TrEMBL record, chain A:
Keywords: Membrane, Transmembrane, Transmembrane helix. InterPro entries: DUF112_TM. The chain crosses the membrane at residues 31-55, 67-88, 108-135, 147-164, 170-188, 195-217, 261-283, 323-344, 356-376, 388-408, 469-488. It comes from Flavimaribacter sediminis. The keyword Transmembrane applies. The keyword Transmembrane helix applies. This is Tripartite tricarboxylate transporter permease.
UniProtKB/TrEMBL annotation, chain B:
This is Tripartite tricarboxylate transporter TctB family protein. The chain crosses the membrane at residues 12-32, 44-67, 79-97, 128-149. InterPro entries: DUF1468 (IPR009936). Residues 13-149 form the DUF1468 domain. Pfam families: TctB. The keyword Membrane applies. It comes from Flavimaribacter sediminis. Keywords: Membrane, Transmembrane, Transmembrane helix.
């Protein structure tokens, strides 16, 4: 099929009445939870996942994806106005966005953040539409050895690249793998780690773990802490939003750099939007001729991270839809949603369900345009939403979590299990464990075990099969390089700080 | 000096927890057939993961020792006992009431109990909030989305 046929197929799907409706719902919910500090896209997607069981598969993915990139738009609003990141991906935007707001230029900061988000989103969208089919074609020749190696690379890069301690991230990914093995082993029928409980025979549901570790644990950390907020009460007029011509010119290069950084980190399995903002900001500061302006309200400090996180939120779908390996933890949940709908993620997805892929791509386009108009003209409404006190919000979050978890299979056990994951997750955070790698391990665990077993069966028990095949050997080599480089740079840093 | 001691203490607690979980995994997976390399059994993969988990626990400890004397970002504080008790109670109340009395009372109880964790709302505000969220959930989940949940049962 030609490119235009694909695009028209996508648009015909995305513009159908129900899909368009779910796209609008998705981006609006995403914007809403993005604006509100204390409720992130991970918890929301996990919470709403059970509801999508009753929705056609394409609509379900379009809506969940809309929540993800919509939250990237919304996250900057609270960051700029309150110096409080609405989502983890907006933490960097506080650094220069809030000083801009304090100097009376909140409108300019919001306008720039929205346009940068849109630019990054479009950039990522083009990458998704052009790279996914190519990658999928290459991946069609992959065997189980390549998949096993790729999954290991994804898990390790999730654990190694990032700010958290490597040992802790690694441990979390492994705990995720271990949890994924709870239940009946599909190969042998053995009941593994079920403690004799029938409710565990089907394994621990992804929704139960996600809503517990992210939703409930976040509420436990925030309840009673986030007080009432006094958002800027000044009305922001459209006239005050336009940046000066010089600012507009200086924003172009950072937008391109930020989008590119976001695209690369988005595609890399395991690393996502939040990380890309830190990298993009650091790069801007390094290339700038006036780095001392950063932190004082430099427009580049808003442009780069905002375009990076939106670009990454789109390109995270590239490995997900071409290889079946999620680009980050949020997309991992969407992968779970696809599996629940009976779609096997992998290179054959594009061949078997072109309507789903191109429909999703077209919905990105439509969703980003909707967000542009949702953002700028309606900014006063979002500012008002910022004033919803957390004490009213979190009981509602808990109620939604309860309904979502219970509705999966009308099980009281699942609600209690989610509560337990919430409490454990809260203590884990206190000990500095990052929860995102656990989720990746949980989603990828069954695939890893299956492909690992199959590889060994095909090679008649020869463990060298993983390095002897050229592609799989190449992936293993990259994995080793990533691990060595990360430990080496850590070692160098600790040496330098001691001297 | 006090904060240094505490951060190493935190690393040891984290490492010990990971090592204990890994050790448990080793014991548990040895209870299943391991199989051979040609056809690995249900115990083999959990065993590999558990052994790696023990090793990552050691890595956490090593990192903790290496990072001694360096400033680190403090992890978030633990929730107060009040927050912990009322939020867990709210969730468990839902689990208890839902199959017995239906969705509306279960949600109302969950909201009312968990709202007490914060303590900034007056009793009548809590009551209004509980009723409002219960109505909202009833409309959205049962009427609009048609989830197979009973609103009120005896």
């Amino acid at each position: 099929m030609s490119f235009f046929e694909n695009i028209s197929l996508g648009l015909s799907v995305a513009l159908s009445f129900s899909t368009l409706g779910y796209c609008i719902i998705g981006v609006t919910v995403g914007m809403f939870i993005g604006v509100l500090p204390g409720l992130g896209p991970l918890a929301t997607v996990g919470m709403l996942l059970p509801l999508t069981f009753y929705v056609p598969q394409t609509d379900a993915i379009v809506m969940l994806a809309g929540i993800y990139y919509g939250s990237m738009y919304g996250g900057s609003t609270a960051a700029i106005l309150l110096n409080l990141p609405g989502t983890a991906g907006a933490a960097v935007t506080c650094l220069d966005g809030n000083p801009l707001a304090k100097s009376g230029r909140a409108g300019v900061a919001l306008f720039t953040a929205t346009l940068s988000s849109f630019f990054g989103g479009m950039f990522g969208l083009i990458i998704v539409a052009s790279f996914t089919p190519i990658l999928a074609r290459i991946a069609l020749s992959f065997g189980s050895q390549e998949y096993a190696a790729l999954i290991v690379l994804g898990l390790l890069s999730a654990a190694m690249v990032g700010n958290a301690s490597k040992g802790r991230s690694l441990a979390m990914a492994l705990v995720g793998l271990l949890i994924s093995m709870v239940g009946i082993d599909p190969n042998s029928g053995a009941n593994r780690m079920t403690f004799g409980m029938l409710s565990l025979a089907d394994g621990l549901n992804l929704v139960v773990v996600t809503t517990g570790l992210f939703g409930i644990a976040e509420v436990l950390s925030n309840a009673g802490r986030i007080g009432s907020r006094d958002a800027l009460s000044t009305r922001i007029r459209f006239r005050d939003m336009l940046p000066t011509a010089r600012e507009a010119r200086t924003a172009i290069a950072p937008a391109l750099r930020g989008s590119s950084i976001g695209a690369v980190l988005g595609i890399l399995p395991g690393t996502g939007a939040a990380l890309s903002t830190f990298v993009a900001y650091a790069v801007e500061k390094r290339v700038s001729r006036t780095p001392e302006r950063f932190g004082q309200g430099a427009i580049e400090g808003v442009v780069a991270p905002e375009s990076a996180n939106n670009s990454a939120a789109q390109t995270a779908f590239v490995p997900t839809l071409s290889l079946g390996i999620p680009g980050d933890a949020i997309v991992a949940i969407m992968l779970g949603a696809l599996i629940i709908h009976g779609i096997v993620p992998g290179p054959q997805l594009l061949r078997d369900h072109p309507d789903l892929f191109w429909g999703l791509v077209a919905s990105f386009l439509i969703g980003n345009v909707i967000l542009l108009f949702l953002n700028l003209p309606l900014i006063s409404i979002w500012v008002r939403i910022l004033r919803i006190p957390y004490s009213v919000l979190y009981p509602a979050i808990l109620a939604f979590i309860c309904v979502g978890v219970y509705s999966i299979r009308n099980s009281v056990f699942d609600v209690v299990a989610a509560t337990m994951f919430g409490v454990v997750g809260h203590f884990m955070r206190r000990l500095g464990f990052p929860p995102a790698p656990l989720l990746l391990g949980l989603v990828l665990g069954p695939f890893l075990e299956q492909n690992f077993r199959r590889s060994l069966m095909l090679s008649r028990g020869d463990i060298m099969t993983f390095v002897e095949r050229p592609i799989s050997g190449g992936i293993v080599a990259v994995t080793v390089l990533v691990v060595v480089y990360m430990f080496w740079s850590d070692f160098r840093r600790s040496r330098r700080s001691k001297v | 000096m006090f904060s240094l001691a505490r951060s190493l203490g935190q690393d040891s607690v984290a490492a010990l927890a990971v090592i204990a979980l890994g050790a448990y995994g080793v014991v548990e997976s040895l209870g299943y057939p391991l199989g051979g390399l040609r056809n690995i059994g249900p115990g083999a993969f959990p065993l590999i993961v558990s052994v790696l988990l023990v090793l990552s626990g050691a890595l956490i400890l090593a990192e903790g020792v290496a990072a001694l004397g360096r400033e680190r970002e403090a992890p978030p504080d633990l929730a107060s006992a009040r927050v912990m008790i009322f939020i867990v109670a709210g969730l468990l109340a839902f689990a208890f009431l839902m199959p017995r009395f239906g969705l509306a009372p279960a949600i109302a109880a969950c909201v009312a109990l968990s709202a007490l964790a914060d303590g900034s709302l007056k009793p009548w505000q809590v009551a209004v909030l509980a009723a409002a969220i219960a109505c909202f959930c009833a409309v959205v989940f049962v009427v609009l989305l048609n989830l197979p949940l009973d609103l009120v049962t005896w």
